[in-house]
Design goal:
The chain is an alpha/beta fold and 466 residues long. It is built from 13 helices and 25 strands.
Amino acid sequence: MESVKSAFCIAGTHSGCGKTTVALGIMAALVRRGLKVQAFKVGPDFIDPGHHRRVTGRDSHNLDGWMLAPEYNREVFHRYFSESHVAVVEGVMGLFDGFSGTDESGSTAQMAKLLQIPVILIVDARAMARSAAAMALGYSRFDPELNLQGIIFNKVAGERHANYLKEAMQTYLPEVPVFGCLVRDHEIEMPSRHLGLVTDEDNPLGKERVERLTACIERGVDLDRILKECRFESRDRVRAEERVEENSNNIQVPIGIAMDQAFCFYYAENLRLLREAGALLKSFSPLRDEGLPQGVQGLVFGGGYPELYSGELSKNKALAQEIRGFVRKGGAVYAECGGFMYLTKAIVDLEGREHPMVGVFPVRTKMSSELNSLGYREVATTTKSPLGPEGTVARGHEFHYSYTEGIPESLRKIYKVRSRKDSQETSEGFLVNRAIGSYIHLHWGSNPQVPVNFIKYCKEGCLEAG
């Protein structure tokens, strides 16, 4: 696409300042103009990209400074940006927040510099006027290498408040423009629950909310100025055409993908890598479908919120029986987090009620009111598995409120796990027959050989069964 392009990062002063709502509004307003908008999300989050997709009509892609190598992040960015007019990258946490208090690793600022795109800072201006300029001044000078292109004040009380904010910025920081002031509107704020915002699958941005969000941005933000001052001249050519998968072939392997309201946490890149490795993806719903897609040679169960649908899932006994039979016959299965929970014996809810699940893994998962695990993880396999041969390494993250109980000593654990900041190894990753289950969400972009290995593993199982 040879037309003039724009790219920018929407960052926040802190979590909860409204950057997701503002980012979605800007995307929607640009789409209304007839522009092709490509969204990205910094960090391992699954939920925000789902909302991005709803607004833009295009898959949103994660960029991550720890799970993915710098070159891979750049490749993902340029691969998808090449097909659009505008790239909008939503940041994570506060602009400079990352892995520690001493360096930029894992931060939005680091990713913006890696991609060489400007930053638009969202400032929650509630109960502030002149002080907001002091805050903006600190952010603008904290890292001289960062291109802080402008400010959007959010949650503004009204026109008088907006004028105070603009006057303060013009007086103390005239070189950083105010791109807009958004009056607080509870009707457009995104609802939350444990693990973050309510998912797109459970709370789709309906036409009325999108219209209200778009109108709010169009009233309060100078989009023309943003597009002009955030023009992007690519210095990297997309290498998608040059990157040929050595293991790709013309024979497609049918792979079942669990996908519905209970299972919706998938990195779009993981699915693309699966397709490139030779997979023919066939989605099915554990909530509604009584059988697996015909002819599948492998199954993938992503994360999500099975605990919210445990009653419905437990009633679908026909599908559970078919999945158990698939595993007994040597079918290849990869399950992570919510998908793993679904394949255990039962999910025990916060009231102590036990909901029978599929029973591939002889453990129970029990919900807790407190966060049980959070952080980046690197896994190395100790034996051949759906991920590949012994010693296969991949990176991902954990984020869950449940925990396992009743683990028999005979159950094989084949992951040696290290966190980002701790070299001490722990064991995880349960293997039953040719099915692997784990709480860890892996990004296969950290090791693109993994989906190739998985497809090969599926084929081997099919040959053995034959």
